[in-house]
C-alpha cells in the first residue's frame, strides 16, 4: 500500500515542526513502520538533527525538485530514512515559481518511492511559499504543530486558509490529521489558558492530539543530534510522543 504522506505545516518558525517530525518518525519506526523523513526546509535543521552535515552532501532534495532527478535518500538513521536538504533548496523556491506546475515537483519526486514506506513525514519550512505548497500538494494528510502560547492562534487563520485553498485547487484529497500543541508550560496559568483556547478553537476543525510540554531536553537531544527517546529514554515527553505516534498510526 502507498505511504501516508504527512506534511508538518505551520508558517511560523520555532513552533516545533522539525523536532516533532524527527521524534514522531522515530516512534512510528519503533512501532515497526517504515518511515521516510523529507527535509523540505532550506535551513536543513532536520538534516542536522539527524546527524548529517548539509554542506557535505552531494545530492539533496534540491536535485529532485529543481532538476527532476531521482530523490536522494539516506537509510538506517535511527530506524528511519531521510531525504536530506541543504541551503541550495532556497534557490528552488525561485526556480520553481517560473516552472510549469512547479507545485507538483515533490509529489512527482515521491511517486517512485512511496510504495517503499508506510509513512512519509515532510518537514515544511516556516513560510507559505512554493516549498510549503509543494508539500501540501504531495501530502495525504497535514499535521499542524501549534505553539502553546497566547499568540498561537493569531497565525492559524492564515494557515487554515492556505490549507483550504490547496484543498479546493490542488489536492482535493488532503486531510487534516490534527493539531499538536507544542512547548506547553503546563505548570503556569498562562500555559493552561493558552491550551484551553487552542482546544476551544481548533477542536472544531480537527483532532487536537496530546500536548508536548516545554522541555530543554528537546533542544539538548537535537544538539546531540538524536531523537529524545535515545537522548533521555526516561523523559516524560517520550511517552507523549509514543501516544501521538500510536494515534497517527492507523489514520485513514
Ligand atoms: N517541546 C519543546 N520544548 C522546548 N524546546 C523545544 C521543544 N520543541 C522544540 N524545541 C526547541 O525549539 C527550537 C525550535 O524548534 P524546531 O523544531 O526547530 O521548530 P520549527 O521547525 O517549527 O522551526 C529548537 O531549538 C528546538 O530544540
Ligand atoms: Mg524547522
Helix content: 40-55%
Strand content: 15-25%
Strand order of the largest sheet: 3-4-2-5-1-6-7
Order of helices and strands: EHEHHEEHHEHEHEHHHH
Average pLDDT confidence is: 95
H/I helix tally:
11
Please give the structural blueprint:
Blueprint: E1 4-8, H1 17-30, E2 35-39, H2 45-49, H3 61-67, E3 74-77, E4 80-83, H4 89-98, H5 105-111, E5 119-123, H6 130-138, E6 141-147, H7 156-169, E7 175-182, H8 189-202, H9 216-223, H10 228-231, H11 236-248
Parallel strand pairs: 1-5, 1-6, 2-4, 2-5, 6-7
Antiparallel strand pairs: 3-4
Helix pairs in contact: 1-11, 3-4, 5-6
The chain binds adenosine-5'-diphosphate (ADP) and magnesium ion.
Magnesium ion binds at residues 17-18, 41, 45, 123.
What does this structure look like?
There is one protein chain. This protein starts with a strand and ends with a helix. Strand 6, helix 7 (156-169) and strand 7 form a beta-alpha-beta unit. The mean pLDDT is 95. It is globular, with a radius of gyration of 17 Å. It has helices spanning 17-30, 45-49, 61-67, 89-98, 105-111, 130-138, 156-169, 189-202, 216-223, 228-231, 236-248, and strands at residues 4-8, 35-39, 74-77, 80-83, 119-123, 141-147, 175-182. The longest helix has 14 residues, at 17-30. The chain is of the alpha/beta class. The protein contains eleven helices and seven strands. It has a single domain (4-248), classed as Rossmann fold. Helix content is 42%, strand content 15%. Helix 1 (17-30) crosses helix 11 (236-248), helix 3 runs parallel beside helix 4 and helix 5 (105-111) crosses helix 6 (130-138). It has a seven-stranded mixed sheet with strand order 3-4-2-5-1-6-7, with helices on both faces. It binds adenosine-5'-diphosphate and magnesium ion. Residues 17-18, 41, 45, 123 line the site of magnesium ion (MG).
Amino acid at each position: 500500500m502507498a505511504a501516508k504522506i504527512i506534511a508538518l505545516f505551520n508558517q511560523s518558525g520555532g513552533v516545533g515542526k522539525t523536532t516533532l517530525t524527527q521524534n514522531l518518525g522515530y516512534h512510528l519506526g519503533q512501532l515497526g513502520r517504515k518511515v521516510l523523513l523529507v527535509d523540505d526546509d532550506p535551513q536543513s535543521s532536520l538534516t542536522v538533527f539527524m546527524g548529517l552535515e548539509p554542506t557535505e552532501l552531494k545530492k539533496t532534495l534540491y536535485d529532485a525538485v529543481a532538476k527532476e532527478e531521482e530523490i536522494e535518500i539516506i537509510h538506517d538513521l535511527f530506524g528511519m530514512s531521510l531525504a536530506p536538504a541543504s541551503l541550495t533548496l532556497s534557490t528552488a523556491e525561485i526556480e520553481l515559481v517560473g516552472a510549469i506546475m512547479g507545485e507538483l515537483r515533490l509529489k512527482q519526486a515521491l511517486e517512485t518511492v512511496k510504495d517503499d514506506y508506510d509513512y512519509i513525514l515532510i518537514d515544511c519550512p516556516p513560510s507559505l511559499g512554493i516549498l510549503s505548497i509543494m508539500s501540501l500538494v504531495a501530502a495525504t494528510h497535514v499535521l499542524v504543530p501549534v505553539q502553546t502560547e497566547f499568540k498561537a492562534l493569531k497565525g492559524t487563520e492564515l494557515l487554515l486558509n492556505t490549507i483550504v485553498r490547496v484543498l479546493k485547487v490542488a489536492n482535493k484529497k488532503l486531510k487534516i490529521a490534527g493539531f499538536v500543541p507544542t512547548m506547553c508550560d503546563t505548570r503556569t496559568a498562562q500555559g493552561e489558558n493558552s491550551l484551553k483556547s487552542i482546544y476551544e478553537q481548533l477542536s472544531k476543525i480537527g483532532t487536537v492530539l496530546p500536548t508536548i510540554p516545554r522541555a530543554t531536553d528537546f533542544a539538548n537531544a537535537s544538539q546531540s543530534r538524536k531523537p529524545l527517546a535515545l537522548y533521555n529514554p526516561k523523559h516524560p515527553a517520550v511517552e507523549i510522543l509514543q501516544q501521538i505516534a500510536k494515534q497517527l498510526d492507523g489514520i485513514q
